[in-house]
Design a protein that fits this description.
The complex is a heterodimer of chains A (about 300) and B (about 260). Helices cover about 35% and strands about 30% of the residues of chain A. Chain A is an alpha/beta fold and about 300 residues long. In chain A, the strands form 3 sheets. Chain A has a 6-stranded mixed β-sheet, with helices on both faces. A 4-stranded antiparallel β-sheet of chain A has the order 2-1-4-5. The chains are: A alpha/beta (about 300), B mainly alpha (about 260).
Chain lengths: ~300, ~260
């Protein structure tokens, strides 16, 4: 039985210019114990899909289930199995960190006495570096600390399926490392993890399998290693202060001074260098490596057909 | 609903959270309304004590006290559920509740329960402070208990409906200032509707708040504008109607699930 199952999920909103398909016939399963990545540009439908999974939004058609429990007809069992870290940095300003966690665990029926779950709450606080903030009011915490509390709130009822909706957006390196170590440990212990992120290096490092969404449609679904092997080619990377010649620009990715140009073999590398030399460019820190997930992602997004807006 | 998670599971933590929420700001949610009610009593009682006689055996200040108590109960019960829900919606932290397995019954009982608690705490506070200003006796305590509990429940549920419907604080303010406040003031808090012209008496009889306050007052004085049994029937019917609407809106996730 899949940990999460999306079957023919469609979501249509009425817009000023007609119906907008936020999701269009999305189907895939995530198996128990997987670390699964859901990728896509802004507006691709990732958060809508997760909102349907969490019960925040209702699908126009299709079925979503968590461990075999339909998220609409058997919502209580589905939500008991789910821990969701929302994308927005939200908090309840009336409570301390410990109070917020005790209350949240109570909602999931973790003992009628909210103090009974304190051992697990203490463990969560320790793993997320929040032990010294347990009695602090939520308003007193920094943005990064609030993000950690969001993670703790999602895990406080020990859900077998964890959903992280861009959990590292705008947070510092320390939190990212703390968070990923903890989530990786939970995954090794058998928890299923569904992650959406714009940090593709994180997805490449953590996720065994990936789905990519574009305009509400699944445009890629495979193991991370297979996606990298199937699509990627060699990349010539270098730094340069001047612009690339026009003939190279179309097959390149430019991030500030860093240029990455696709090159399938040694002859193409030679040709690129010759073009640069002819144009008077002076590349520095040259290196040749395999394309990463970001290269694959950009290539897939470029190739996938766009969805028309229905009238 | 899952067999392992009951219909009412999780109600207690949510009730605890809602009570803790208002208790943490008790200066604003309890002390301030008590002070407001005392000021009403001091001003109106001082000005009108020797000029207005509502019931033969009851002085005006004594008459005023149960009205002010019930007005405080109603307004604070409404404020509790409506403000809690709209704050959670606007701050975005309602998501913590939306992702839980809580049923619409659990939401309803917890929010309305906390409203009842706040309404009764404020009402008791007003009574404790104002009872020293004029003679007051509990003639029929069961009426007092029923109408205070039912009044708080009606307003707690109405506050929940307003909180679900509203999308900004302004709309809750409008609901409070243009519906709740006029209906409360025009329900006989400060006067007996017997003193009104026939037209306004008729209008008052269409106001459910009138029956809540009149029935509550009957518990103190044994006299009232209408029979307490009629008030009981009207208040019970109003409570059922508002609670049914509230439960329906919660069940369909009105304006909280998209």
């Amino acid at each position: 039985m899949p940990a999460i199952s999306f079957q023919n999920v469609t979501k249509t909103y009425s817009g000023a210019r007609g119906a907008v398909h936020a999701l269009d016939d999305v189907s895939f399963d995530i198996q128990p114990g997987e670390f699964f990545g859901l990728l896509g540009p802004n507006g691709a439908g990732k958060t809508t899909l997760i909102s349907i999974l969490a019960g925040l939004t209702r699908a126009s058609s299709g079925h979503v289930a968590v461990l075999g429990h339909d998220v609409v007809s058997d919502y209580a069992a589905a939500r008991l199995s789910l821990g969701i870290v929302p994308q927005e940095l939200v908090f309840d300003p009336f409570f301390t960190v410990r109070e917020a966690l005790r209350i949240q665990s109570g909602y999931f029926g973790v003992r009628s006495d909210p103090r009974a779950n304190d051992a697990w709450i203490d463990e969560l606080l320790a793993h997320l570096g929040l032990s010294d903030k347990a009695e602090s009011n939520m308003r007193q915490l920094s943005g990064g600390m609030k993000r950690r509390v969001l993670v703790a709130q999602a895990l406080v009822h020990r859900p077998p399926v964890i959903v992280l909706d861009e959990p590292t957006a705008g947070v510092d390196v320390e939190l990212r490392q703390t968070l990923w170590q903890f989530i990786a440990r939970l995954n090794k212990e058998g928890h299923t993890v569904l992650l959406t992120t714009h940090y593709l290096e994180e997805a490449e490092a953590l996720c065994g399998r990936l789905a990519m969404l574009k305009q509400g449609r699944v445009v890629a679904l495979d193991r991370t290693s297979a996606l990298l092997a199937g699509r990627a080619s060699t990349m010539l990377r270098f730094k340069m202060d001047t612009a690339l010649p026009a003939s190279l620009a179309a097959q390149s990715r430019v991030t500030g001074r860093v240029m990455q140009v696709k090159a399938h073999d040694a002859r193409e590398v030679e040709a690129i260098l010759a073009t640069l030399h002819a144009a008077g460019c002076r590349p520095e820190d040259l290196e040749i490596g395999r394309a990463d997930l970001e290269d694959v992602f950009l290539e897939i997004m470029k190739d996938a057909p766009a969805l028309k807006v229905a009238a | 609903m899952s067999a392992s998670f009951g219909l009412l599971a999780g109600t207690r933590p949510l009730l605890y959270k809602e009570v803790l929420r208002f208790w943490k700001v008790a200066f604003q949610t309890v002390a301030a309304p008590v002070l407001t009610a005392v000021l009403y009593l001091l001003i109106f009682g001082h000005v009108l004590e020797n000029h207005v006689k509502v019931f033969e055996t009851v002085g005006y200040t004594s008459f005023l006290i149960p009205g002010l108590v019930m007005m405080s109960v109603l307004q604070n019960a409404f404020a509790n559920s409506s403000s809690s829900l709209i704050q959670s919606k606007i701050n975005g932290n309602l998501v913590f509740l939306l992702v839980t397995p809580l049923s619409h019954w659990a939401w309803f009982l917890a929010y309305v329960g906390a409203s009842i608690v706040r309404g009764l705490v404020v009402g008791a506070g007003v009574l404790l402070v104002t009872m020293w200003f004029a003679p007051l006796h509990l003639v029929q305590p069961l009426w007092v208990l029923f109408f205070s509990f039912a009044g708080a429940a009606v307003m707690g549920a109405l506050g929940l409906v307003a909180g679900l419907w509203a999308e900004k604080f302004d709309q809750i303010g409008a609901f409070q200032n243009f519906i709740v406040m006029p209906m409360t003031f025009l329900s006989g808090v400060f006067y007996s509707i017997g003193s009104l012209p026939p037209f306004w008496q008729g209008v008052s009889h269409a106001n459910p708040f009138f029956y809540i306050i009149d029935g509550f007052r009957a518990g103190f004085f044994g006299v009232s504008d209408v029979s307490p049994w009629l008030s009981l029937a009207v208040v019970s019917a109003s409570m059922l109607a508002v609670c049914a609407l509230c439960l329906h809106l919660l069940r369909i996730g009105y304006k909280i699930r998209h």
